[in-house]
Predict the structure of Aspartyl protease family protein 1 isoform X3.
Amino acid sequence: MSSFIIFFLTLLSIRQCSGRVFTFEMHHRFSETVKKWSLQKIGGPLHNWPVKGSLQYYTQLANHDKLLHGRRLFKFDGPLTFSDGNSTFRISSLGFLHYTTVTLGTPGMKFLVALDTGSDLFWVPCECGKCASTDDPTLYSSDFELSIYSLNGSSTSKQVTCSNSLCTERNNCLGVYSHCSYSVSYVSSETSTSGILVDDILHLRTEDNEETFVQARVIFGCGQVQTGSFLDVAAPNGLFGLGLEKISVPSILSREGFMSDSFSMCFGHDGAGRISFGDKGSFDQEETPFNINPLHPTYNISVDQIRVGTTHIDSGFTALFDTGTSFTYLADLSYTKLTESFHSQVLDKRRPPDPRIPFEYCYDMSPDANTSLIPSLSLTIEGGGQLVVYDPIIVISMQGQLVYCLAVVKSQDLNIIGRYEIEKIDHFPSEAVNTTRVPPAVAVGPGNDDAEKSDERTTNTPQSSFASSVYQTFY
């Protein structure tokens, strides 16, 4: 009976007065009328049609109700989040990115993954040929435990074959039933992940009073080989891509009917935040359209104006919103206009360039410094919304002296609005820092070469919005 819909509708009449009136007949799932239609459809007797009032009759109705209510719960009611909760945390020792805990497989295994709107694929270290060390005390704090996913360790794990529509590496396949490999390179030099695609259960729960737990099958990367920053600094236990491509978890959850096609991320001043899937936002929030590149859709928005202190700068550039990037990267001319305006309003003495620091505009902080005198910063985005940067500086302790820097890095071509850090850094590496390098969590893909270049606006029709009032990223 699973092929039968709840109500069979028959159009009886259309009357036209001031408007149209449509009248329908509705029939019970196990009514005699539906039974006759079923006989006509299949051309034979119905062996599993329950007798009214029997145990089978009520059992089938109850099972159908349970399935239907489950679908309604996921698709129309409150948002979903991870089974361990919706909390996110900024972890300075792991690349200044925002992390959360996800549970995969059966039995469930926990992973501390970085949340990244700048890429699409969700991957975790798995069957490792080259992964970050899970027990090196010099790299990680003992506050968090790193896991390795095992295909054989999960009873619900399945390898994704080359016949799957989400397999993009078909050219490397030996046949349609071979396992599908993947490889993702990131903008940061020599940072990548590769392995095979896996299908397994992601453990979620509803964000309502009932707190119902949900098991959703998703496709993710079994990361067998990691390179670059994934080996020592950023996302050593996996990366949760939140992008717009079909392979991303939000896209999969929406496509499978678990939630509406949106999600939100909020960040607090202390670095703690939350993530919710299916969050539809509020009526009073500010919005801006995304500039969608069909070849490689990203959360690309248009910035009309930059306010630095009391100065307003007409900018007119596009930028990628990326939670996987620690700081903000701007290309000229926007970078020069912003930094020179900031410098002209700062009262403290500027420090000479330091190759260990990726920021160009740094200042000595006097003992009686008042941070309220530091120029504020905000962005006016298309549509008129204001994105206030609550703390545009980063404070560094250098040989007992406090230094603060404007947390904006000069980029060669990409404009990226990342996460401004708001806690003090006690030290920087002793070696020189390549200030033109973009952090690893922006995936390289078709269109990334020019989609976010300075002073260029894309002309694609906007398809989504960014809710700036509470720093929510809406998919």
About this structure: The radius of gyration is 27 Å.
